[in-house]
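Notes from hallway chat w/ T.B., transcribed later so I don't forget. T.B. wanted the structure written out for a chain they're using in a teaching module, and asked if we could keep both sequence and structure tokens in one place. Agreed to drop them here.
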Amino acid sequence: MRAVERVCEGATPEEVFDVASAGAWPAFDAAVRNPDDRPWLWTRPAGEPERRAPTLLDRLRGRAGSRAAAPASPPPPHPAVALCHRDGRVREAALDAARTDPELRPLLVVRCADWVAPVREKARTLLAELPGGDLLPLAELILRLSRRERGGFARALLEVALREGPAAEVLALTTHPDRTTYRLAYRIAVERGLLTPMELAATAASCGDATLQDLFADAAVAAVTAGGAVAPGGAAVLDRLLTARAPRVRSAGVTALRRAGRHGDAEPFLADRSGVVRACARYVLRQGGVDPLPVYRQLCADPAAHPGAAAGLGECGDRVTDAGTLWALAEHPLPAVRLHAITGLRALDVVVRERLTPLLDDPSPAVVRAATRALLPDAAGIPERLLRERSAPDRPRAVRVAADRLLRAAGRQRRPDPGYR
């Protein structure tokens, strides 16, 4: 690693690599610790056999060699290099420099997970002496190193600092670009109640992180339904969850309608595009004494206005009574209706291979994919010639992919090589 040579030549770490990068310091540590092409870092300088030259440890501690006539040795290396030295005694001696130099604190964190107990314990003692706010700039590095076998100490200190420190520092860390870092900051912010219920709901609705969506949605619901009753302003919080794009957030809002006593408000979500949301809506309606099946049948009378109702009808309908409705909807001119009708046929377990195979040529790629999923269990029964024709290069890509999937499911074709298309 060229950075090691430059630091040894007198450059500072800031001049040779990105010290703000959490991955740069462990890489620098590894480069110094394994100096295959730099033996002068960890061996004694050559000297006359009867005289001991000062070792690097001697130079760090300001000691001379055993004899005054020992050959001259170069000055001690930069403390950053000494903190990564493969000799544990050198690393331990160099920790004193990290006590007062903020620029060396990343390596102090690294040494808290050191494999040598004296080095590790001294580094931990020094890190514990720092104010909690000084750990926040090191949060990404601390969390990265916490994956190591001995890396939990610094993380524990960081979590204490976040739980006991100023709220502004915790909220500032939620904007960190590293996912693990901002997840931890948000989790502690929720535990400390630093976000209002509406802020939780709005963040859940706008966040793209699935883990945080669950965290915020659950916290928002708990905040407005504590004690079994909806708190003042809670209706607006639930309405914000119900308008979220993410299905998991909408489902949390729909489920909360039961605790809010708003069972009837779940009815529009019976035709939601997400199966999870539809299931939650059925649950809430049943808790309110409403059977969702007649509602589904009514919604399917106007499928263009409620495409998802076809899927819901299959999820709770009757195989004898409702199968005909779903097959009719599978031929509807609106692609969304055909898509959900196929989903409903699968849920109702009334897929008929011969009737569904023509949908492999549907102009909508989404419908073709849905038909393919429904036909996969019975792929062996589809004529091979029919599938070979649809895997021809002149067919639309969705049709070719569907034909290849079905051929593989039937054991008639190996998986194509990468770049097949």
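Follow-up for T.B.: The two ends are 41 Å apart (CA to CA). Might be a good example for the class.
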